[in-house]
C-alpha cells in the first residue's frame, strides 16, 4: 500500500499509513522504507525524512542496497546536498567492504556527473575498490583525480594510494608515495611494510620497521603481520619469533588468526614441521 501511494503521487497517504504501521507495533522492513522515503522526497519533508533515516539506522538498514539510493534521492530532492553526499559515501563504502568494487566504482562515476561532490571518505573507498581489482591504470587515474581536487592533503588518502599501488603490482609507485609524505602515522608505516613484505622484499620491510621505531611511531597489528610475512619469505625464523612474541609482551597487541597463520608458515618454510605442529596444537583459538 505504501509503495502504491508513493508511485501514484499520493505521498501524504503513504506517510499517514506509516504512522498506522508504527502504532500497530509492526516493524517496517527494507521494502517499506524506500517507498516512504520517496513519499518524503515528493513532499519535500526533510525533517520527517531525517527522522525516518534515524529509524532506519536503528533497524540496521542504513547500508541496505534498496534503502541507500532512496535516501540519496530524498536528501537531494530536499536540497540537503551534504546529507546526500554522506549517503552516497555510505553505499560506496558498503560496496567496497562487501568486496563489490565494480558497483562502488559505478556509483562513483554517477557521483561525478551529478551536482554532488565526493569527499575524502569517498576516495578512500574508491581506492580500496581499485586495490581489490588490482587495476593499476584505474588506480593511477584516481591518483590524478586526487591531486587535481586537492585530496592529497589527507594522510589517509595518501596511505590508501600506497596500498592501491602495491596491490596493483607497482611497489615503486607505492614507495614513491611513502617517500613524499611529510607526516607518517602508524597506518602509513604499516601499509609500506606490508607492501614490501607482499612483494618479497623482506629485508626492506624489516629495515622500515627499524626506521619506524627510530621515528617513535607505535606499531599495530598490521605492522606485525607485515613483519611476520617478511620474516617467513626471507627465512628469518628467529627474528620472526621475536616479532611475534613482542606483540603481546612489549606492545600489548593480541595476535589474531592471521598472525598465527604466518607463524605456522614461517616454521614450515624453514622445515621445522614438528615445531609448527606443536604451535598449532597450543593455539588459544
Automatic annotation (TrEMBL):
Record key words, sorted: Repeat
PROSITE patterns, per the entry: PPR
PPR repeats: 84-118, 185-219
Superkingdom per UniProt: Eukaryota
InterPro entries for this protein: PPR_At4g14850-like_plant (IPR046960), PPR_rpt (IPR002885), TPR-like_helical_dom_sf (IPR011990)
Record-level GO BP terms: plant organ development; RNA modification
GO molecular function: RNA binding
Keyword Repeat applies: yes
UniProt-recorded name of the protein: Pentatricopeptide repeat-containing protein
Organism: Quercus suber (Cork oak)
Lineage of the species this protein comes from: Eukaryota, Viridiplantae, Streptophyta, Embryophyta, Tracheophyta
